[in-house]
Write a structure and sequence with these properties.
It contains 18 helices and 25 strands. With 493 residues, the chain is an alpha+beta fold.
Length: 493
C-alpha cells in the first residue's frame, strides 16, 4: 500500500544549517508497531519536513504508506489501522540529494530481492553515489529515483541475490559505500540498523518497557515519546539485527582506534535539546556553549535573548555567566516549519516574519544580546536585526554559539557550495555590517568543542576549518574552480 495515488513499491533513488533526515525502527511482536513508529516520527519531525513514510513487516510481506508532507499530514487513523505487523521503520525527509518534491524520492524505499520485499530508510549522504549507480546499471539494475537510499537498497539486493544472506550483503555494502549513513532496514520479520564507520550521523538503541520489544532511532527523544529505555548508541561501523532471536550485533570494520567524525552540528543545532548523545544532554552542551560565549565576547547590555528554539539554551547560559537578565523577546509560531524548508530565498526572508514575532515590552529601549546557533547565508539574521530595531531596540549585539561556517558539507547537510556561505567570503566585521548588528561574536572552535566534554578528534568540524575526515578532493576541486582564491581545505584521511 502506498498513499497519494502512486504505484505501490515504486523505487526511489536557509539561513541556518539544514538537517538531513530522521530514521526510526521498532521490533515488537504483539504491539501496534505502526502507531509506535508514527509517534517516533512525530518526535523527530524537526529533522525533516518534506515527506514522511512508514513501512511494516507482518511476517509474510512488507507494506508501506508514504507521501510528501509532515507526519500529521501524511498519516490518518485509517492508514495506521491498515499497517498491522511486528516490525516497522519510519522516515522523515529533508533532501540533500534528490528532488524534494518528487514522490519517488520519499522513504522508506521499497525494493525486492527475488520474491522478498525489503524497506530501507537512510539519514546522511554518500560521496560515491555516482560510482555505485554506474556499477548497478552495469549489472542491468534499473534505478528510478535520485536518492542515495535507492543505491544502498539496490546494492544490498544485488549482493543478497548472489550470497543468499542479508547480513553478508549489509557488511559488503558498508565496505563499498563511502560517506555518512545511519540506515534502518526491514524484511517481513526482522529489523536491521547500521551506521557508517566514522559515526557521522546519530543512531541509538532502546528497549520497550517490560521487554516488549526493541527500538532504534536517530535521537533519544523518539525513545522517550514511546516510553522506551535508552540502552546505548549504535557504534560507528556496527550493524545490529533484531528478530525473534533477540538483538544480534556485528561490525563491518571493528577497529576501536578508527578516527571518529560525529557531526558537531548535532550538538549545536540539529538534535532536539532533550536528546542525549555521547552520554551528554544536548541542552547542557548548548548551555555551556553560551557560558563560554559570554566569556569570549562580553558586552554591556540590558537583556539577553535567544532565537528560539535552538538558540535559547545558549542564551540562558550566556545570561547566567554574564549576569545579564534573560528575556523572551521573540514569540515563535510553532505551526510554521523552519525557514530553510522554503525553496527560495525570498520565501526564507518572508518566513522569519511568519515564524518569529518580536515582543516590544522585552525589547524597546534595551541594549540586547541576541544569541543564535549559526549564520549560514546571513539574510535571515539581517531581517531579524531589522525587526528588533523596528521594535525599538537601542543596540543589537549578535552572539553565535558556533564558529563561522566557511566550508561546504558533503555528508548530509544542505550546504554543498561555498557561495551559499557568508563565512566563506566575508570577514566577521563584514558579516556584522551586512546583518546590521552593533557587534558580532562567534564562539571559538576550541570553546565549542570544550562544551561537549569530548576531544576534537571525535567530531567532524569540516564546515568550520575545512579538515574533512574523508577524501572529498573531487568535490573540493569543483568548488575551487567555482571560487578561485577561496583557500584550500585540509583532508584528514
Amino acid at each position: 500500500m502506498t498513499k497519494g495515488g502512486q504505484a505501490p513499491f515504486c523505487h526511489e533513488r536557509p539561513d541556518h544549517m539544514t538537517e538531513e533526515c530522521a530514521v526510526f525502527g521498532v521490533y515488537a511482536p504483539g504491539e501496534d508497531v505502526a502507531r509506535l513508529t508514527y509517534f517516533g516520527l512525530y518526535a523527530l519531525q524537526h529533522r525533516g519536513q518534506e515527506s514522511a513514510g512508514i513501512a511494516v513487516g507482518d511476517g509474510k510481506t512488507v507494506t508501506a504508506v508514504k507521501n510528501l508532507g509532515l507526519v500529521s499530514q501524511v498519516f490518518e487513523e485509517t492508514d495506521l489501522a491498515a499497517l498491522p505487523g511486528e516490525v516497522a521503520i519510519g522516515h522523515t525527509r529533508y533532501s540533500t540529494t534528490g528532488q524534494s518534491t518528487k514522490w519517488e524520492n520519499t522513504q522508506p524505499h521499497m525494493s525486492s530481492i527475488g520474491r522478498q520485499l525489503i524497506a530501507l530508510a537512510h539519514n546522511g549522504n554518500l560521496i560515491n553515489t555516482a560510482d555505485l549507480r554506474d556499477d548497478l546499471r552495469a549489472h542491468h539494475m534499473h534505478l528510478q529515483s535520485t536518492t542515495d537510499s535507492e543505491a544502498i537498497a539496490a546494492l544490498i539486493g544485488e549482493i543478497t541475490q548472489r550470497t543468499n544472506h542479508i547480513r553478508q550483503a549489509v557488511a559488503e555494502t558498508m565496505a563499498r559505500v563511502r560517506g555518512a549513513y545511519a540506515v534502518v532496514l526491514i524484511t517481513e520479520m526482522a529489523l536491521y540498523a547500521f551506521r557508517d564507520p566514522l559515526g557521522v550521523r546519530p543512531l541509538c538503541l532502546g528497549e520497550l518497557s517490560d521487554g516488549r520489544g526493541w527500538v532504534v532511532a536517530s535521537e533519544t527523544c523518539a525513545l522517550d515519546i514511546i516510553g522506551a529505555r535508552f540502552v546505548r548508541e549504535v557504534e560507528p561501523g556496527e550493524c545490529i539485527k533484531i528478530s525473534a532471536d533477540g538483538v544480534e550485533t556485528f561490525l563491518s570494520d571493528p577497529d576501536p582506534g578508527r578516527r571518529r567524525a560525529f557531526c558537531m552540528f548535532e550538538y549545536v543545532y540539529f538534535a532536539r535539546p532533550d536528546s542525549i548523545m555521547s552520554d551528554l544532554s544536548l541542552y547542557e552542551a548548548r548551555y555551556r556553549m553560551g557560558e563560554t560565549l559570554a566569556s569570549e565576547y562580553p558586552v554591556e547590555a540590558d537583556a539577553v535573548m535567544g532565537v528560539p528554539d535552538s538558540g535559547t539554551p545558549a542564551a540562558i547560559g550566556y545570561a547566567h555567566a554574564s549576569g545579564i537578565p534573560f528575556v523572551e523577546g521573540l514569540a515563535k509560531n510553532r505551526y510554521v516549519g523552519r525557514t530553510f524548508i522554503q525553496p527560495s530565498q525570498l520565501q526564507r526572508q518572508l518566513g522569519i516574519r511568519l515564524k518569529l514575532n518580536p515582543m516590544r515590552f522585552a525589547i524597546e529601549g534595551k541594549r540586547l544580546v541576541v544569541v543564535d546557533d549559526s549564520i549560514v547565508r546571513g539574510n535571515t539574521t539581517r531581517a531579524l536585526v531589522q525587526m528588533l530595531r523596528e521594535m525599538g531596540a537601542r543596540e543589537v549585539h549578535m552572539r553565535i554559539s558556533s564558529p563561522p561556517v566557511a566550508w561546504p558539507c558533503f555528508f548530509g547537510i544542505d550546504t554543498d557550495t561555498r557561495d551559499q556561505l557568508i563565512g566563506a567570503h566575508k570577514s566577521v566585521e563584514q558579516i556584522r555590517a551586512h546583518i546590521g548588528a552593533d557587534s558580532l561574536g562567534y564562539l571559538s572552535q576550541a570553546g565549542m568543542v570544550a562544551a561537549t566534554g569530548l576531544p576534537a578528534s571525535n567530531f567532524c568540524l569540516a564546515c568550520f576549518d575545512g579538515r574533512y575526515p574523508l577524501d572529498v578532493s573531487d568535490k573540493l576541486a569543483a568548488e575551487a574552480a567555482a571560487h578561485p582564491g577561496a583557500g584550500t581545505a585540509q583532508l584528514e584521511v
